[in-house]
Amino acid sequence: MEVCTTFVSDIIDMAPVIVLIVLILLIVFFIFYKRPQKKVILPGNFREILSEHISYYNRLDEKNKIRFEEKIKEFLSYVRIDGIDTTVEDLDKLLVAGSAVIPIFGFKNWKYDNLRNVLLYPASFNREEFLASGYEKNTLGMIGNGPMQRVMILSKPALRSGFANKESTANTGIHEFVHLLDKEDGEVDGLPEVLLNRKYNSKWIELMNKNIGMILQERSDISYYGATNKAEFFAVTSEYFFNLPGLFKENHPDLFELMCLIFNQDPTNL
Ligand SMILES: [Zn+2]
């Protein structure tokens, strides 16, 4: 009887240790467990679609084209794309994924941890339906806040026209993904602290202020919307940087040089 009592009291003494071991095992499990990724099968003609619509893809060599395709597949494995009152065609999926991959193509293993769902709308949409404090009546794209965290909303025609016009500096898809990158450090403020080495911060802020001033004085070819604030300046100049890199480099060499550092790539020399 005495042996049994000792055994029970030993177990009781060890209870905190057992609880600790179980907790450690659970923590280790959650850290290392990887959810199986959804297998993505791209449409049979996906290379033709990419070549026809995404000029950035066409500027890549064969090896990088394959890397681009892999990144598109990876993106589509963790982000859902849904249409609201509109159909989502293969082209739309590839354009959304392309918009996502272009700004992060200079980084080896970038994943948009702050995105799960992209909603496509048939036209521009009323921002106030999504944001209680919205101030713009019609919007072509936006990233969600609060309950809409991890959701991006894009106008389908705006997404398509960003890639259709090869002479345009505008690209709504790239614009919204650059906002997401900007948001990585917690704030959408035009200063992508996760991407830019701290020593260039003051130079970047100085360049943004100078160029916003030039837009306001109508002495710049950067879209007037870029003068709204620094976050919009960063997103708008990124559209121009990726859509027409040669022209951007010629007209804005100082901005171009810093943006190559931010995105870790030179889009004139892919
Ligand atoms: Zn914006």
Characterization of the model:
The chain is α/β, with parallel strands linked by helices and 270 residues long. The protein has one domain: Collagenase (Catalytic Domain), CATH 3.40.390. 53% of the residues lie in helices and 8% in strands. Strand 1, helix 5 and strand 2 (117-121) form a beta-alpha-beta unit. Bound molecules: zinc ion. Zinc ion binds at residues 175, 179, 232, 235.
Attribute tags:
270 residues; alpha/beta; Collagenase (Catalytic Domain); four-stranded mixed β-sheet; two-stranded antiparallel ribbon; 11 helices; 6 strands; globular; binds zinc ion
Shape from CA axes? Answer: globular
What is the H/E order? Answer: HHHHEHEEEEEHHHHHH
List bound small molecules. Answer: zinc ion
State the CATH architecture.
3-Layer(aba) Sandwich
Low-confidence stretches are 131-137
- Per DSSP E runs of 2 or more residues, the count of β-strands stands at 6
User: Would you tell me the overall average pLDDT?
Assistant: 88
Provide a concise account of the structure shown.
The chain is of the alpha/beta class. It has helices at residues 2-32, 46-53, 55-58, 62-78, 90-104, 156-164, 172-183, 201-216, 230-243, 245-251, 253-263; strands spanning 80-83, 117-121, 125-126, 138-139, 141-143, 151-155. The strands form 2 sheets. A 4-stranded mixed sheet has the order 1-2-6-5.
